[in-house]
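Hi L.,

You mentioned the student needs an example of a multi-chain input paired with its predicted structure. This one should do, with 549 residues in total across all chains.
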Amino acid sequence: MSDVMTAQAQPAPTPDGSPPKLAVHDLVKTRRSTSGAVVTAVDHVTFDVHVGEFVCLLGPSGCGKTSILNVLAGLDQPTSGRALLDGRPITGPGPDRAVLFQEPALFPWLTVAGNVELALKLTRVPGDQRAERARRWLDNVGLRSFGDAQPHELSAGMRQRAQLARALATEPDVLLGDEPFGALDAQARELLQDEVQRVWLERGGRKTFVFVTHNVREAALLADRVLVMSAAPGRLIEEVRISAPRPRQLDDVLVARVVSDVHELLMREVGRATTEGRDR
Amino acid sequence: MSEPPAGDLPRTGARRLWHEVGPPSAGIAGLIAIWAVVAALTTTSGVPSPIDTWKAFVGGMADGTLPEATVKTLIRLVFSFALAVLIGTMLGVGFALNEFAQRSIRPLVVALQIVPFVAWVPIAVIWFGPTERAVVFVTVVGSFPSMTLATMAAVRQVPPILKRAGRTLGAEGWTLYRNVILPAALPGFLAGLQQAWGFAWKALMAAELIIAAAGAVGLGHLLAREAGDVPVLVAAVAVIAVIGVLVDYLLFNRLDRRVRRRRGLLLEG
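Structure written out for the whole complex:
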């Protein structure tokens, strides 16, 4: 199987001496379970993400991929190891790294446009430009006529579009997605995936996207590189480069091949974890 | 902005008015009917009829005692309630911000909340004499604890996801409070306001009733002074109840519904 992967692999983006956009070195993240035992969620994970790359962290539920994303977002500190942004340690969250959450994270007391405008206000965009920029971004994600709506009046898919507009309106360098489409129905998910792919392409090579997902098709559709994680405790077990041309469709031959290969790999991993769990 | 749910006809004019005031009017009419029957069947002067009470009310309005008492009481109430809300909000937000403050001071506030406010009346009189200050003291002490606890609960119950979203958008510290946490806590805060209003009203009545400041006028004082004239007593109680309910309905309840509807926390039915 690895042959297929290498056949499609591109040479790694060669950094011109500048540090990678995001770097994770030997990251360990433990947490306490409700019974008080220390559980290792992320087990010595190391990877780089270069400027303009789209990387997906793929793995079974509970493999610690969200923990990694939270560390990159600055919402959580590593137990050990380092997380770097432009070569500097990440100490907290910041508007240079926008986050798309899976749960509804829009502020319910603001209108849809108000949510986007608040993001602009928090990044000190002058007051007279906010409304215009918010409108432009809502247009861009297909919510032109929903600026005055309250978040609860939107469908789940539209809410995620609004979140995408809020996340991108401040022009962050990095977009982190924590299974942002995981709770959507198939149609809404597909539309959002197209949207994300388009937005990333439009900003050709300047925006760095890191998405966490357990959906193989999503990873194959979106990512330049898929980092496949093991079942808990999460380790990196495979790196898959996808060179299929964009914009991609799920039925593209290359995409379909990656999907089936990675799917097989994951099934084997989940099977192994289950057997081990049983044997223990 | 939101469409009415399917199958629910839009209410207009008379239908809407009936929907709003019909049920409570029916409740009040029922109460007055029962009251009239009980009064007719009782022979002592302890239960005045609704008509006697109405006459006492009209008399009180005509000679100016009721309006004057009501206005003076409301002035005390608004002042004390505002003070209680201010103290309660600051303490509540402070507790939510600072673990040590919360753990050291909160038990004292809970203790205040549990002690019946009437218990403060004699102490207030010893400290301040039978004065306006004593009345205000009892009212504030009677209502700020519930405001404090409600504010703290409201701030603590803000969904973590909203705080995380705010932080990733670049809000920290006070900016996060002002733009995310406090607005998110508003529904709980309003519930606290409504509750504290009820407490303030009760504490004020108790204080006015017992503390007869020299020449002081108020609905509670009226209750103490007119002890021999039962219809006036009942009329005063009715005024107290009506004002309390009206403010609750027209101000707090409306505000609460508006905020909840806007956030999708209220299903129209």
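You could point out the following to them. Residues 1-7 of chain B have pLDDT under 50 and may be disordered. DSSP finds ten helices and no strands in chain B.

Best wishes,
N.
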